[in-house]
Amino acid sequence: MSTQCAIGSEEDGMFRYVTSDVDRYLTYTGAMLCDAYDSIERVRALISMGGLEVIGLKISLDPSSPHGKDIRQEHVCVFHKRNLKERGYNASAVDLQGFSKIVDEFPYVYRYDGRHWKCS
Question: Using one digit for the tens of pLDDT, what is the confidence trace for 89-105?
Answer without folding.
Answer: 999 999 988 888 899 99
